[in-house]
């Protein structure tokens, strides 16, 4: 019969025998039963206690102890498990027979067949051993030497984070080295005579190599390179170098050398107590242009006292085509801005200054507003002196063009505005909701370089209105809930701002978001006036089976047309186009939405459809847009189909594709393909894309890329759940 586990309790430096306890001294360490000490540092000259548990315990002479059967020692946060332990008091050593399991921290486990350790478990040798770091990286060696509880020196080492099995003993990747030193405190791995192998085939040899262990999230050093290939820039390697500049900032430099470009990319990040900043940029010397090329994007955000917030961003580039040539951004108008804002439940404050830079060949920065300033104070109240809700705003705006040409090409504008809106609603006995509304604007305009006939001065707008809603709810025994809500609004307004040049209200949108608005102009230069009404209905249906449907239909009627509501907007004339918008969501992840504008003859001015479906293996998204031309907005007719999707072939392989086709020009605008392999130890991405954009400065290009990430060196591929399992 196996004897029960017997605790061993220290009584000091001497050795005593009692009926229920045995004790011995491990150097300056005493073993105490059933009391597992914390891992706090032990003060100098203070006894550090430990615990020993075993199935069988025997004394050997006056200076030795033999423990066998499920042996466990707890000491200063270190846990040692072995099958047998021999303690030599004279030499203060432990001889261990495995299997041995040594845990000296939450992120490092050492396994071995046999070994010899010092009494404090900080020094010694373990044979046929393996270290597991952060449950990711495995280091197998013929022998491991422990030094001062900090260093582990491994000989004839194999390092990998891949799962290996008897039927598949060769990992996807491994590093073989003559020796490896793991600095647990510095969280670094130092390799001597290292060879990198893929499926057992040597790929790279280095005499010396230093890598972070998986517990270190940020460390100075080279990152894995990325293979890039472009039809315009050639083929080459991008090799990022990460520089840790303290706990709160870092710099990544990425040289990219190819057959046609010499590029240095940079990213700088810094976190502060109240915010953070990030700078991204690049400098290039290539065969496309004779001049050096560059770009800089930066952004930052900081919390200020009294709930204010400071935000800024910088966007600059050397030429119109650089961002697209190198794939850094698809933007064709750059904006650099700084703003201070505060948002509270009933108040919003914003002050912002923005600089615009157009990259479009059809536009000139001298005739576009390049410097724009805005100020807004918005307050919502429920005053005691009047029923309902009162909303008021004070706004300032200015913009500047460098051109001195009078009119649209050079006009500079400054405006100060005040606006107030009032609304009061109440429910009638039959369930209808009736609301009354009123609003007024005062705007003062001043110009330089204005065209003849454009007026400065004070302008006003006044609007009154009423609204009637009748929400009808139906709940069925099956659990289905339906809400039908007809809505009718009527407004009347007057204004004297017809002679103001239209700068901020040129682009028009008509959708379910502004169907119930008193004006659909985006800015202040134009407002809807006269007698008009908004009529429509909304219907929603919620089914307990997991699907839902929402529909909105409506139209705007006017006594007289408004000249600023131009053809192509769907709002021109005395009656707008019909607006019909709907969305249906299914329990299986499929959703379909559509928004259409059409007249009484079913001639469409706009039609947009979006479809999305997501499941465990498939993600698909597709959209189609048709919109007629709007000459007043400089908007050509558009007809485009876009598609993006991914398919998970199995737990490791995922394919993706995206596509955008221009039916007006009868050609693709962009095509992209991707293939990703991901498991517990590696992630490999293959990408290919073709951009068909062509202008005077931009040419079509084809790009290829290969990115490899290896888990276990400060990188988590997110594939631990994909670890392969060995057959038993």
UniProtKB/TrEMBL annotation:
It comes from the Bacteria. Residues 1-33 form the signal peptide. Residues 292-636 form the LptD C-terminal domain. One of its GO terms (biological process) is Gram-negative-bacterium-type cell outer membrane assembly. Pfam families: LptD (PF04453). Its main location: membrane. It is found in: Cell outer membrane. One of its GO terms (cellular component) is cell outer membrane. Keywords: Cell outer membrane, Membrane, Signal. Belongs to the LptD family. Component of the lipopolysaccharide transport and assembly complex. Involved in the assembly of lipopolysaccharide (LPS) at the surface of the outer membrane. This is LPS-assembly protein LptD.
């Amino acid at each position: 019969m196996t004897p029960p586990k017997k605790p061993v309790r220290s009584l000091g430096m001497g050795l005593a025998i009692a009926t229920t306890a045995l004790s011995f001294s491990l150097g300056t360490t005493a073993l105490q039963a059933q009391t597992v000490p914390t891992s706090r540092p032990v003060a100098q000259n203070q006894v550090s206690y430990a615990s020993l548990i075993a199935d069988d315990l025997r004394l050997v002479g006056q200076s030795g102890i033999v423990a066998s059967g499920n042996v466990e020692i707890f000491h200063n946060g270190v846990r040692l498990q072995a099958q047998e332990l021999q303690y030599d008091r004279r030499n203060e050593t432990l001889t261990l027979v495995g299997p041995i399991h040594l845990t000296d921290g939450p992120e490092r486990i050492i396994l071995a067949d046999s070994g010899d350790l010092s009494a404090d478990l900080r020094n010694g040798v373990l044979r046929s051993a393996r270290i597991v770091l952060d449950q990711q990286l495995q280091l197998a060696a013929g022998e491991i030497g422990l030094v001062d509880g900090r260093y582990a020196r491994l000989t004839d080492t194999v390092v990998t984070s891949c799962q290996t099995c008897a039927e598949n003993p060769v990992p996807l990747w491994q590093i073989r080295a003559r020796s490896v030193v793991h600095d647990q405190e510095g969280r670094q791995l130092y390799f001597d005579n290292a060879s990198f192998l893929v499926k057992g085939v040597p790929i790279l040899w280095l005499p010396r190599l230093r890598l972070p262990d998986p517990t270190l999230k940020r460390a100075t050093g080279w990152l894995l390179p990325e293979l890039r290939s472009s039809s315009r820039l050639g083929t080459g390697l991008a090799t990022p170098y990460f520089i840790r500049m303290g706990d709160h900032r870092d710099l990544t430099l990425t040289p990219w050398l190819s057959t046609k470009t010499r590029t240095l990319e940079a990213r700088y990040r810094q976190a502060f107590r109240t915010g953070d900043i990030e700078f991204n940029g690049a400098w290039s010397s290539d065969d496309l242009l004779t001049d050096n090329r560059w770009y800089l994007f930066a952004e930052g955000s900081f919390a200020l006292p009294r709930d204010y917030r400071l935000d800024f961003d910088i966007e600059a580039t050397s030429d119109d085509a650089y961002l697209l040539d190198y794939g850094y951004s698809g933007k064709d108008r750059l904006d650099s801005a700084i703003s201070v804002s505060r948002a509270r439940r009933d108040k919003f404050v914003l002050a912002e200054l923005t600089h615009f830079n157009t990259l479009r060949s059809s536009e000139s920065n001298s005739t576009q507003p390049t410097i724009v300033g805005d100020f807004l104070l918005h307050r919502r109240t429920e005053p005691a002196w009047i029923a309902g809700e009162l909303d008021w705003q004070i706004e300032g705006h200015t913009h500047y063009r460098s051109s001195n040409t009078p009119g649209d090409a050079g006009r500079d504008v400054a405006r100060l505005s005040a606006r107030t809106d009032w609304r009061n609603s109440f429910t009638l006995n039959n369930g209808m909701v009736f609301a009354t509304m009123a609003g007024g604007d005062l705007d003062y305009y001043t110009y330089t370089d204005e065209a003849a006939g454009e007026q400065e001065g004070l302008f006003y707008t006044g609007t009154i209105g009423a609204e009637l809603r009748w929400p009808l709810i139906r709940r069925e025994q099956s659990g289905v809930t339906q809400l039908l809500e007809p809505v009718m609004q009527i407004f009347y307004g007057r204004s004297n701002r017809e002679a103001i040049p239209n700068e901020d209200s040129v682009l028009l949108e008509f959708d379910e978001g502004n169907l119930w608005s008193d004006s659909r102009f985006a800015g202040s230069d134009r407002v809807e006036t006269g007698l008009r009404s908004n009529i429509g209905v909304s219907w929603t249906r919620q089914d307990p089976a997991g699907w839902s449907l929402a529909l909105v239909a409506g139209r705007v009627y006017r006594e007289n047309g408004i000249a600023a509501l131009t053809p192509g907007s769907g709002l021109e004339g005395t009656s707008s186009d019909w607006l019909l918008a709907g969305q249906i969501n299914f329990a299986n992840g499929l959703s379909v939405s559509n928004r259409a504008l059409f007249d009484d003859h079913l001639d469409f001015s706009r039609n947009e459809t979006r479809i999305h479906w997501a499941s465990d293996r498939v993600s698909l998204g597709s959209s189609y847009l048709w919109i007629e031309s709007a000459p007043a907005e400089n908007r050509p007719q558009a007809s485009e189909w876009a598609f993006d999707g991914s398919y998970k072939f199995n737990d490791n392989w995922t394919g993706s594709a995206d596509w955008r086709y221009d039916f007006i020009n009868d050609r693709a605008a962009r095509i992209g393909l991707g293939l990703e392999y991901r498991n517990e130890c590696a992630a490999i991405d293959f990408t290919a894309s073709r951009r068909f954009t062509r202008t005077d400065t931009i040419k079509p290009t084809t790009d290829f890329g290969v990115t490899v990430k290896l888990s276990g060196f400060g990188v988590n591929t997110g594939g631990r759940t994909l670890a392969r399992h060995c057959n038993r």
